[in-house]
Specification:
Elements (H helix, E strand, L loop, with lengths): L1 H20 L10 E9 L8 H14 L4 E4 L14 E8 L1 H15 L19 E5 L19 E7 L4 H11 L8
Length: 181
């Protein structure tokens, strides 16, 4: 399954982007470097089990072991100590990245209620972050076993130099943007 999206990138997307932006060589064509899935858990300072549950959920969604992210400093108002677990993250590259992207586009995003597309705002360097409000859009999550709905950020890191190039790359991959440019 992972090979299909990567093969599609090589056979269809690279020539299309070369033609669209007038690249002189294939090496100039932007590519997807990695996908980072991040979930912040502010309530984890009170309930330590939330981190374990989130690690298991993100691991099930991505097929790669997630790690807990730790706080960098003490903040007394939030009852936070340095090096306390406050979130979960995983970085996907190569085959797992393409496999996750394909499942996100074909299965997870269409399961969002009243889905009309995703925002087309990139970060200025050709990277895009998608905020997902509920983890239950992924079929790997069993709704009966959930005690709390959690959102997550999915960041697509590309080698594109501009937002326009990054947008075109992600659009060719099949991300359903609202405002088609």
């Amino acid at each position: 399954m992972a090979a299909t999206l990567h093969k599609d990138y090589i056979e269809r997307i690279v020539p299309a982007l070369e033609k669209e932006f007038g690249y002189k060589t294939v090496m100039q064509v932007p590519r997807l470097k990695k996908i980072v899935i991040n979930q912040g858990l502010g309530d984890a300072t009170q309930d330590k089990k939330l981190i374990d549950i989130a690690v298991n959920e993100i691991t099930a969604i991505t097929g790669q072991k997630a790690v807990a992210t730790l706080s960098k400093k003490d903040i007394s108002n939030f009852k936070l100590r340095k090096r306390m677990p406050v979130g979960v993250m995983v970085t996907l590259r190569r085959d797992r990245m393409y496999e996750f992207l394909e499942r996100l586009i074909r299965v997870a995003l269409p399961r969002i209620r009243d889905f009309k597309g995703i925002e087309g705002k990139l970060d200025g360097r050709g990277n895009y972050t998608l905020g997902v409000t509920e983890q239950i859009i992924f079929p790997e999550i069993n709704i009966d076993n959930i005690n709390k709905l959690q959102g997550m950020n999915i960041t697509f890191v590309t080698t594109a130099n501009t937002d326009e190039e990054g947008y075109a790359l992600l659009k060719h991959f099949g991300l359903p943007f609202k405002n088609a440019k």
